[in-house]
Specification:
Largest sheet: 5 strands, mixed, barrel
Helix content: 10-25%
Radius of gyration: 22 Å
Strand content: 25-35%
Oligomer: single chain
């Protein structure tokens, strides 16, 4: 009995049968897109950043790219927030580079090991933002933690290994701030 090749020749129905099976499988996958299995309910992928020994998660959909920290210094206006470190150009767009430690109420970082370029968020006073962090811990699934354990202003989430991280929402993080950039 002949075995089908990549084009489906030699299989019952030939190339047409193969094409129908492929299209049926693709249709099934497209129909299931966005529907998480029941045991994954509430899980979402996030970039995990370390800032001063504390883990913070940013939903993967908000992050355009992770890159080495690099920025150009700029003359500072008097009303420029302390968190602004400079600007960074990427693919024809100018990003305002901000120190995540200062945004969260801490001291400026001496050394940043990672920079997250965020996707634009409608309604923010700055169109493109890059966040500096101590380092990137990777991408992991997070699940909402009980409301009893929360950091003021930021909900908590649990990593698969049980560690808790603060979940940062760019719209919430920047909504109440004015930027003199």
């Amino acid at each position: 009995m002949p075995t089908p090749n990549a084009a489906g020749e030699g299989a019952p129905g030939g190339a047409e049968g193969y094409a129908r099976r492929v299209m049926a499988e693709r249709a099934r996958l497209l129909a299931a897109r966005g529907q998480a299995p029941r045991d994954d309910a509430g899980r979402r992928a996030a970039v995990i950043l370390d800032v001063g020994g504390q883990g913070h998660a940013i939903d993967l959909h908000h992050v355009l790219r992770m890159t080495e920290p690099a920025w150009s210094a700029m003359p500072r206006r008097p009303d420029c927030p302390a968190a602004v470190r400079g600007v960074f150009g990427h693919v024809g767009h100018l990003y305002t580079v901000m120190d995540l430690s200062v945004l969260l109420g801490g001291a400026p970082m001496d050394h940043a090991g990672a920079m997250a370029l965020l996707r634009p968020v409608a309604g923010l006073p700055v169109a493109r933002i890059a966040l500096l962090a101590g380092r990137t811990l990777g991408v992991d699934d997070v699940v909402d933690a009980p409301a009893a354990v929360s950091v003021p202003g930021h909900p908590m989430a649990a990593l698969p290994d049980g560690r808790l991280v603060a979940v940062l929402d760019p719209a919430r993080l920047f909504a109440a701030r004015s930027f003199g950039v």
